[in-house]
Design brief:
CATH class of the largest domain: Alpha Beta
Order of helices and strands: EEEHHHEHEHEHEHEEEHHEEHEEH
Number of strands: 14
CATH topology of the largest domain: Aspartate Aminotransferase, domain 2
Largest sheet: 7 strands, mixed
CATH architecture of the largest domain: 3-Layer(aba) Sandwich
CATH superfamily of the largest domain: Type I PLP-dependent aspartate aminotransferase-like (Major domain)
Structural class: alpha/beta
Distance between the termini: 45 Å
Strand order of the largest sheet: 4-10-9-8-7-5-6
Strand content: 15-25%
Number of domains: 2
Shape: globular
Helix content: 25-40%
Number of helices: 11
Radius of gyration: 20 Å
């Protein structure tokens, strides 16, 4: 049997990883500044993470949500403390797409309405409602297009106001920093306007923190830069450091009912252990503060590269914008300089999404390599 050929692959085969370094099957080391789409939050094979998972696997790896799992309550308590989101309830699932799917479903349950407002260049996943709310027609199949979604430009108050005041909107879904789209952000004024308009019009505000959450932006969640309170927060990617886990934080004002959400694998014992390990390392190693400081350092270094038009993003969720498409630049970085970076929907943006454990020396290494390939 062959694999279903949907991924254009680089000719690199990683076999091990430690911190921000990946080693391939030929013994070549690579600096990982992409983390597999921002998934590796505390570094490859972090010893505390490995120990936590091994210890849990020796006890019990999985049972369904039909029985008590104290690890889930432990996780919810720790997550509430570190994120300062104690006024929310946690539902665990398996991925960012599933998190957004459940967030949109909850919004529709709560409001009795079905239309969604999303934003140009937003990305929320590849499943039914999540992909319908993603601004990419090439991955939106006819069956997904039955969903009612209206796309408006980011930071366009007039266009947003016109749509949100219609009576059929259940949710507004928004990334604090657009990941796949190319690191664009809502302004604080616009995000606050969205939050106020949602309350006024009985619309659920969903903060998609799948990529920007768990400290990547320099605060625990990206929306916290803007001083707003969403109704639902979606999380995934960096929360498991590579273990498949996702979830939604649902505000306490939204009631739960038996059966309204469900999952077979979500919140299993290993998933909880992985996420607890991430939270413990974020706290003990002060990685959110590191993300904030290293983001500033990265931006300062970028100012010395004439070809960089601007730096986008915050913390360690960053993009370098050039006046040319970066596909060839990425190839040179990986094959000639042995550095992993990312691309975006905006083909002029090079995405940088390293582990939050990265240091200044690795950033210096990247900029030296970048200068070399840009000569």
């Amino acid at each position: 049997m062959n694999l279903f050929d949907v991924y254009p692959l680089y000719n690199v085969t990683p076999v091990s990883g430690k911190g921000s370094i990946i080693t391939d099957d030929k013994g070549q080391e690579y600096l990982d500044l992409y983390g597999g789409h921002a998934v590796i939050s505390i570094g490859h094979s972090h010893p505390h993470y490995v120990q936590r998972l091994k210890r849990q696997l020796d006890q019990i790896g999985f049972y369904s949500n039909a029985v008590q799992n104290p690890l889930q309550r432990e996780l919810a308590t720790k997550l509430g403390q570190l994120s300062h989101c104690d006024d929310y309830q946690l539902f665990l699932c398996n991925s960012g797409a599933e998190a957004n799917e459940n967030a949109l479903k909850m919004a529709s349950f709560q409001t009795g309405k079905s239309r969604v407002i999303a934003f140009h260049n937003g990305f929320h996943g590849r499943t039914s409602a999540a992909v319908a709310a993603t601004d990419n027609p090439t991955i939106n199949a006819p069956i997904n297009q039955q969903q009612k979604v209206t796309f408006v430009p980011l930071n366009d108050s007039a266009a947003f106001k016109k749509e949100v005041e219609k009576a059929d909107v259940c949710a507004v879904i928004l990334e604090a920093i657009q990941g796949v789209g190319g690191l664009d952000e809502p302004t604080t004024d616009f995000y606050r306007e969205i939050a106020q308009s949602c309350k006024k019009n009985q619309v659920m505000l969903i903060a998609d923190e799948v990529q920007s959450g768990f400290g990547r932006s320099g605060t625990f969640f990206g929306f916290q830069h803007h001083g707003i309170e969403p109704d639902i927060i979606s999380i995934a990617k960096g929360m498991g450091n590579g273990f498949p886990v996702g979830g939604i934080l649902i505000h306490n004002t939204i009631p739960a009912k038996y059966g309204m959400l469900g999952t077979t694998f979500g919140g299993n014992h290993l998933a909880c252990a992985a996420t607890m390990a991430v939270l413990e390392v974020l706290e003990s190693e002060h990685l959110i503060e590191n993300a904030q400081k290293l983001g500033v350092y990265f931006t300062e270094k970028a100012t010395g590269i004439p070809q960089v038009k601007r730096v986008k993003g915050r913390g360690l969720m960053l993009g370098l914008e050039f006046d040319f498409e970066v596909a060839e630049l990425r190839k040179k970085l990986i094959y000639e300089q042995h550095i992993f970076t990312g691309g975006a929907k905006d083909k002029h943006v090079l995405r940088i999404l390293p582990a939050l454990t990265i240091g200044k020396e690795q950033i210096d290494l990247f900029f030296n390599a970048l200068k070399t390939v840009l000569q």
